[in-house]
Amino acid sequence: MQNSKNCIMCYSEIDSRAKKCPNCTSLQAKYSNLENNPILIGILGAMIIGIFGFIIYNNFYIRSLEEKAVNDLKVSVTDISSKIEGDTLYVACMGDIQNNSEFEFRDVKYQVDFFSDKNELVDTFTVIDEDIRLKAKSPTNFRVRGLAQKESTMYKNCVVKVADAWSCK
């Protein structure tokens, strides 16, 4: 070979007009290989950092704001009722939830505690309401109902807490 050069990857001697090394098959243009192109490496690195930054932002920062918003939901119970259907006694609490956050929630999980007139815990259950939507910056009416474990006269007071809710995005 009278006009030769070294391959940019494997440094073997090749024809100076070769576009591809016959030994390692790497392209011989100055920035044709990703390893030799600092601009492409920089862009790729910035994209990877951006993706990880978005994941961290969304999974940690936004999720912590959503959890705080769920904890700040204000639940007020306006009515307690019981009803016998067949041989089964059901108890229900009705009221409203004030959502003062910027988030809208769905699939609300309630923790419901019933108390006697002496403020003793009578019954407790968890209910997931998949149909309710808690709109941002507005009140929403709710109703939770469950199987009563005691007689209806025992259920005098009800405390409802939102245990969890999924943010609508």
Overview of the molecule:
- With 169 residues, the chain is α+β, with helices and mostly antiparallel strands.
- It folds into three domains: 1-36, no CATH class; 38-71; 73-167, Immunoglobulin-like (Sandwich).
- It has one helix spanning 38-71; strands spanning 4-6, 13-15, 74-85, 88-99, 105-115, 121-134, 138-147, 157-167.
- The strands form three sheets. A three-stranded antiparallel sheet has the order 3-4-7, with helices on one face.
- Strand 5 (105-115) and strand 6 (121-134) form a beta hairpin.
- The radius of gyration is 32 Å and the shape is rod-shaped.
- The model has no long low-confidence stretch (mean pLDDT 90).
Provide keyphrases for this structure:
rod-shaped; 169 residues; 1 helix; 3-stranded antiparallel β-sheet; Immunoglobulin-like
Summarize this structure briefly.
This protein is an alpha+beta fold and 169 residues long. It has one helix at residues 38-71; strands at residues 4-6, 13-15, 74-85, 88-99, 105-115, 121-134, 138-147, 157-167. It folds into 3 domains: 1-36, no CATH class; 38-71; 73-167, Immunoglobulin-like.
Most strands sheet: 3 strands, antiparallel
Q: What is the beta-strand fraction?
A: 35-45%
CATH fold-level label of the largest domain: Immunoglobulin-like
CATH architectural category of the largest domain: Sandwich
- How many strand segments? 8
Q: What would you call the shape?
A: rod-shaped
Count of helix runs? 1
Write the element-wise H/E pattern from the N-terminal end onward. EEHEEEEEE
Main CATH class of the largest domain:
Mainly Beta
Q: What is the helix content? A: 10-25%
Rg result: 32 Å
State the domain count. Answer: 3
Strand order of the largest sheet: 3-4-7
State the secondary-structure class. Answer: alpha+beta
| Distance separating the two termini | 65 Å
Low-confidence stretches: none
Mean pLDDT: 90
